[in-house]
Amino acid sequence: MNENEISEALKSKFGNNILETKTSKRRVFINISTKVYKDVIRYLVEELGFNHVQTITGVDVGNFIEIMPHLGRGVTVTVKTRIEKNRPALSTITDIVPGASVHEREIHDILGVVFEGHPNLTRIILPENWPEGVYPLRKDYTPEQPVPMKEVS
Amino acid sequence: MNIVKWARLKSPWLLHFNTGACNACDIEVLAALTPRYDLERFGALLKASPRHADVLVVTGPVTRQVKDRLLRVYNQMPDPKFVVAVGTCCISGGVFNGCYNVYPGLDSVIPVDAYIFGCPPKPEAIINGVVALLKKLEGS
Amino acid sequence: MYPLLELLQILIFPGILFAIFLAFIYEWLDRKIYAKFQNRVGPLYTGPMGILQPFADFVKLLAKEDIVPNDVDKPLFNILPIFALTLSLTGFLALPIISLKGIISFNGDLIFLIVLMTLICIVVIYAGVSSSNRFSTVGAERAALQLLGYEIPMMLSVVSVGIMANSMWIYEIVSIQSNTFWFLIGPGILGFAIFIICGQAELERIPFDIPEAETEIVAGWLTEFSGRKFALFRLTRNVELLYLSGLAVTLFLGGPSGPIILGLEPILYPIYFLIKTLFVLFLLTTLRALFARLRIDQMVNFSWKYLIPIAILHILFVRVIF
Amino acid sequence: MSMLKEIQKSLFKKKATVLYPFKEREKVHIPEGLRGKIVFDREKCTGCLLCSRFCPSGACEIVVDEKGKRPIFHLELCLFCAQCQEVCPKGAIKLTEEFELAAFDKKAFTIR
Amino acid sequence: MQKEELRSEDKKSSYELFFDIPVGPQHPALKEPAFFKFKVEGERVIGVDADVSYNHRGIEKALEQRNYIQNIYLIERICGICNVAHTLCYAQAVEQIHGKEIPPRANYIRLMIEELARIHSHTLWLGVAAHEIGFDTLFMYVWRDREVVMDLIEMLTGNRVTTAINTIGGVRRDVSDEAKYKVKKGMDILEERLKYYKKVAINDPTINARCSGVGILKPRDAIKLCAVGPTLRASGIKNDVRADDPYALHDEVPFNVITYDTMDVLARVLVRVDETLESVNMVRYCVDHMPSGEVKIKLPLSPPIGESVSRVEAPRGELIHYARSNGTNKPERYKVRTPTFENIPSVCEMLTSKNGYEVNIADIPITLASIDPCFSCTARMEFRDVSKGKTWIWSLEELKAHCKKKGI
Ligand code: SF4
Ligand code: SF4
Ligand code: SF4
Ligand code: SF4
Ligand code: SF4
Ligand code: SF4
Ligand code: SF4
Ligand code: SF4
After folding, report:
1. Which of C218, C266, E136, E325 has the most C-beta neighbours closer than 10 Å?
2. Which range of residues forms the domain containing residue A77?
3. Which helix (H) or strand (E) element contains residue C147?
4. Whether the Cβ atoms of residue E115 and residue E286 lie closer than 8 Å to each other
C-alpha cells in the first residue's frame, strides 16, 4: 500500500474529519480532528495493519498541544491531532496497541496530557518528587529561581 | 621505599562507575582490560564491590540523580582511595556543560586525583593516565 | 629436640609459612595461566614476571582501612576471616609432603579433612549472613545450596579411595599407592574427575563461582569485607586451592611418592608433590577458562542428576573390585 | 568443545598484548588523522570567531588581547570533534595525533 | 568537598526482610546507571519496576538551544556506541527538511561506517553477554578480535568510538584506496572469527544451559509491546528498517534479514552474530562498489520551515528522530526515540515469572543484556531538574540567557 493509497483510504473513510494530508517518500502526515482520533488509529492498526507504534511526539503549539503518534513499520504514518491546552485530554490507544503505554506515560509526564482509559498512567520519566501539575515541556512553564549549578552541591 | 607503599602501587584495584556517560568512555575503560591492552599487567583488577577497590574510575557527567549514589559508593571505599576522571564530560561536563541536570565536573562532588582527557580517550590514554597516577604516588 | 623440630615443621617447612608462600605462588600461576589462555600476559611488573603480585595484593589489603559496617554482626564478622584461614591451614598440615606422613596424622584423619572442608563452607555461609547485606545474604544462600550439591559426590569420591585402600588413614593410603600403583591409573580415574569438579565448586571458581557471581550479586558473601578481613579471606582461598590440589594428589596421584633415590627422600618428596599439584592446578585453571558460570539450580541439578549417581556407581564398582 | 581447542591453541600463540607504555610503544595503533590534542597557530588567526560559534561544547572561548579577539581552547571541555578545524577559514587550528592527555590538574591543557 | 567530611556519613549497609535486589546504578551487570527494582521470592523473580532516569542529562532541551551543526556532536553523545546511527538519523532528518539528496559516494561511506559500527556494537555485545554469564575467556577473545574493527573505524574517522563522520549534507572525511584495502583485509579476519564464535555459541554446553529457554518473548507479545531490532527478530518476526524503509542506499546493497524463532536469549545471540556476518558482506560490497565523486554538498545553516521523520536501524533496533524546524538555525522541536526505550515493556515481560515460566535471579543480567540496553539514550527525556525535595525551574528565556553566558 503506498502513501497516496493510505491517505485516500483514510479520506474516503473519515471524510471531513481528515483536515489535511501530506505525503512524501514513505512518509504520510495526516491532520485529523480529535473526535475521530481513536477511530483513525483503530482503522490504521486493525484494518490497514499499522500495528507498530514507533513513538508518540507531543508538541506545545501555543493554545494547543499537538499529539502525534507515528505508526507503521515500512511507511510511517504520522497522525496529528490538536487538543486544547486547558483541557488536555485524549482517549488512550493502549487498548489497541499495548506498546504505546510507555509513550503515553512519557507525554503525560512532560506535557500533562491525560490519556483517558490508560490502565497505569503513572510517572515514568520524571522523578517521584516532581510537583504535581508542573509540566516541563509546556511553553507557559513558569520558572522559579534558576539555581546556578555550582551552588547546589 | 617501604613495603606498604610498594604494595599499594603494584596493586591498584579498580571500581568503574558510570555517572551518566554516553557509554563510549565505558567501553574504552572496559577495552583497557582486554588482551590488547591488559591492565592486569599492572596488577589492576576490575572489582565489583566498592569495599574491595582502591581506584574509582568515573566516566560521564555527574547528573543530579546519580550524585548521591556516587557519594555513597565513594564513601564505601576503604582508605586510601583515589579517583580518576575519565573523559571530557566527567572532567567538566563536556558537551553537557552547563546543562541543568549536570554538575560542572566530578571535582565539584568528590576530590579527584587524575584526569584523563579525551572524548573518549583511547585505551592507551587510559593506561597512560593510570601509570601517571601511580608514578605520582610513587614520588609523593 | 624432637618437639622443636616438630614446631619448626609446623611453622615453617612444610607447615604454615611454606603453605602461605606456596599459596601466593599458586595464585600467581593460576592468574598467569588463565591470562595465557586468554591470550594476554597477566601480572607482569610486580617482581620478575609479576610473581610478587599476590603478595602485593595481600600487603596492600592488610594496610587498607578496614570498614566494619554498622549493622553487621560484629563479633562474627571480625572472627570469621581468622577462623577460615586457620581451618584451611590446618587442613594443609595433614597433607604428606616431606614424608609419606603429614605433620598431623592419625588413623581416620581423612574424615577429619572432609569435615574441615565442610567447615570452611559453613564459615562462608556465616560470613555472608553476618554481613547483613542483601547481596551477601543471597551469596550465603547460594553457598549453602551449592554445598548440598557438591559435598556428597566429593565425599563419595573420597570414600571410594578409602575403600580401595581399605583405610581412612592418609598415611596408609599413600603408602599403599606408592607400593602398588597409583589409583589414577586404574579404577580411581573416575573418582579423580569427580573430585576435581567438586573441588572447583568448593573453591567457588568458574563454572561454579555462583556464590560470588560478580555480574549478579556484586561479590556475593564477600561484598562487605574490606581491608584485612578481605585479605585473610583471599589468602584462605589460595591456601584452599593449594590444599585441594594437594589432597587430590594425595588421594589419587600417590601423594609425594615417586622414583626414589634412597636417602634423598626429604628432597625428592616435596619435588614430586609440587610437580603433581601443579598438574592439578593446571587442570583446575583450564576448567576455569573453559566454561561459563552455571545457574544455581542448574548446578544442583547437574550434581544430583549426574555427579551423585556416577559417584555412587563408582563406589559400587570399587567395592566389587576390592 | 570448540572452546577447548581454542584455549589450547592460545597456550602456544603469541600474546595479543602490546606492552604500552613501557615497551613496543611503536606498535600502538595511531592512524593518520587521529583527533587528539589541538594546536593553534595564533599568527594565522584573523579573529573571525567562527570556531567559537560552532564549537558544540564551549571549549573554544574568545578572549580579547592585544591583537584583538582570539580563541583559547579549554581541552577539559573539548570533544575533539574537529569542527573548529573544519570551519576555520585560515587553517589556524589543527588536531594532532597526540593522545596521551593525562593530567593532575583540570586546567592543565589550555591551548592559546 | 573534603575526604574527611564525606567519610563520616556512610558506614551502613541496608538490610530488608523482603529482598529487593537493586540492580543498577553501579551494578556490574549494567555498565551504565539505570535502576531496576526486582521483587524476588528466593531465587525467583516475581516483579520488575524500571526507572530509567539516572542518565538524564538534558539532551532534548539542549538540542533546541544549539544550532544544527553543534547538534551533530550533541546527538552523537546520546549514545557512544551507536553514535553513527544517531548522527545518520539526524543528518537524514535535516536533509529531508532541506529536500536535498546527498552525493552517492557520501551515501556509500555512510553505509560502510554504519555497518562497521554495527559490527563493533554487536561484537561488543557478544563479549558483554559472555561476561554476564561468567564466560570471561570468551569475552576476552571477542574483544581481542573486536580491536580489528576498532582500528578500522579509528583509521577512517579519527576516533575509535565517536566517529563524527556524518554531517549535514554528506560525510566529513573521504576514504582512500589504501584504507579500502585495509578494510577488506580486516573483514576477512573478522569473518573467520565470527564463524568460529557462532560455532561456540551453538555448541558450548554452559552457554546453552544459560541462554536457551531464558528470557522468552513470544511473537504475539513482541508485536503487541512494539519490540524492535534483534529482540523482535529473535522472536521470529522479519522486520528491519533497512529492508522496510530503506535509507542511505540500503535498497542497493544486498543483505538478508536474519530471524530465529526460538524466542530466547540464545536466539538473540545468534541473530546478532549472523547479522554481523551480513554486515561484513555489506562492508565488502560498499568497498567494491564505491563510486567516485564528491562526499559532501553545502547546505545552508538554517533549513526551511518543515518537519520530518527519520528512521534508522541502529544496532539495537529501530531508531526514530522527529524534527521540526521554524526557519531559524535552531530546531523548534527535536524528538529522539531510541530502541532501548521501545524495548523496555518487552524486557519487563521477559523478566516476570508467570504461568509456569520461571525467571531466576541469575537470569536477570543476561536477560537484561539480551536486549542490548543502552540507557544513555533511554533516559534522554526532556526537561527535569529536581534534586532532593528542592525544585527549581528554568524558562526557555533563562536557559537561552544561560547559554549565551556560556558562549554557546
Ligand atoms: S546550557 Fe542550558 S540551554 Fe544550553 S544546552 Fe545546556 S541545558 Fe541546554
Ligand atoms: S567524555 Fe565524551 S565519550 Fe566520554 S562519556 Fe562523555 S560524551 Fe561520552
Ligand atoms: S557564520 Fe554564518 S551563520 Fe554564523 S554568524 Fe556568520 S553568517 Fe551567521
Ligand atoms: S574540537 Fe570540537 S569541541 Fe574541541 S574546540 Fe574544536 S569544536 Fe570545540
Ligand atoms: S575560525 Fe580560525 S581564524 Fe577564525 S577565530 Fe577561529 S581560529 Fe581564528
Ligand atoms: S540504544 Fe540508544 S544509547 Fe543505546 S546504542 Fe542505541 S542509540 Fe545509543
Ligand atoms: S550498550 Fe551494552 S554494554 Fe554498553 S552500557 Fe549499554 S548495555 Fe552496557
Ligand atoms: S532525560 Fe531527557 S533531558 Fe534528561 S538527559 Fe535524558 S534526554 Fe536529556
Report:
1. C218
2. 3-85
3. helix C134-165
4. yes
Angle of CA points E88, E93, E98, to nearest 5°: 120
Break chain C into its structural domains and give their ranges: 70-321
Average pLDDT over chain E reads 73
From the CA of E400, give the closest atom in ligand 1: 3
Q: How many residues does chain C have?
A: 322
Over 50: is that where the pLDDT of A148 sits? no
| Residue A20 included in any domain | yes
Retrieve residue C296's grid coordinates: 544455581
Residue C233 grid cell: 579471606
Distances (CA, A) of C68 to C64, C203, E5, E11, E263: 12, 25, 18, 7, 46
CA–CA distance, B29 with B84 (Å, rounded to integer): 11
Interface confidence, given as ipTM, is 0.80
The overall longest dimension of chain D from CA atoms, in Å, is 72
Residue B26 Cα to ligand 7 midpoint, Å, equals 8
Burial, C191: exposed, middle or buried (Cβ in 10 Å; 0-12, 13-18, 19+)? buried
Q: Which residue has the cell 593553534?
A: D40
Spell out which residues of chain B touch residue E127, defining contact as CB-CB under 8 Å: 34
Give the list of residues 6+ apart from residue E205 with CB closer than 8 angstroms, or none. C291
Handedness of CA C237, C239, C243, C245 (dihedral sign): positive
- Per-residue model confidence as pLDDT tens digits over E170-202: 888 888 888 888 888 888 888 888 888 888 888
Ordered domains of chain B (ranges, CATH): 3-139 (3.40.50.12280)
- CA angle at residue A117 from A114 to A119, to 5 degrees? 100
Report the DSSP pairing between strands B14-18 and B55-59: parallel
Question: How buried is D105 (Cβ within 10 angstroms: 0-12 exposed, 13-18 middle, 19+ buried)?
Answer: exposed
Flag if A152 and B103 touch (Cβ within 8 Å): yes
**What 8-state DSSP symbol labels residue E345?**
H
What kind of architecture, by CATH, is found in domain E59-338?
Answer: Orthogonal Bundle (1.10)
Instruction: Compute the Cα dihedral for C255, C260, C265, C270 and give only its sign.
Output: negative
Chain D residues with CB under 8 Å of C44 CB are 19
pLDDT at position A14 over 70: yes
Residue among B100, B101, B103 to mutate when testing ligand 1 (max atoms within 8 A of CB) = B100
Q: In this structure, is residue A46 part of a structural domain?
A: yes
* pLDDT above 60 for E8: no
Indicate the domain borders of chain E: 59-338
The total number of structural domains that make up chain A: 1
pLDDT in the model for residue A136: 67
Lowest model confidence (mean pLDDT) among C226-235, C311-320, D30-39, E380-389: E380-389
The pLDDT value given to residue E16:
28
Terminus-to-terminus CA distance in chain D, angstroms?
A: 59
Residue B97's pLDDT is 67
DSSP state of C303: I
Residue A95 belongs to some domain of the structure: no
pLDDT tens per residue, range C245-304: 888 888 877 777 766 766 776 777 778 888 888 888 888 888 887 777 777 777 777 888
Distance CA(B70)–CA(A139), nearest Å, equals 34
- Please tell me the distance from the alpha carbon of residue B42 to that of residue D89, in angstroms, as a whole number: 46
Distance from CA of A125 to the nearest CA of B (A): 12
Contact E109, E165 (CB under 8 A): yes
Q: Which CATH fold would you assign to the domain D31-111?
A: Alpha-Beta Plaits (3.30.70)
Residue E91 Cα distances to D85, E72, E95, E99, E166, angstroms: 20, 8, 6, 12, 7
DSSP notation for C175-233? HHHHHS--STTTTTHHHHHHHHHHHHHHTT-TTS-GGG-HHHHTTGGGTT--HHHHHHH
B111 pLDDT higher than 80: yes
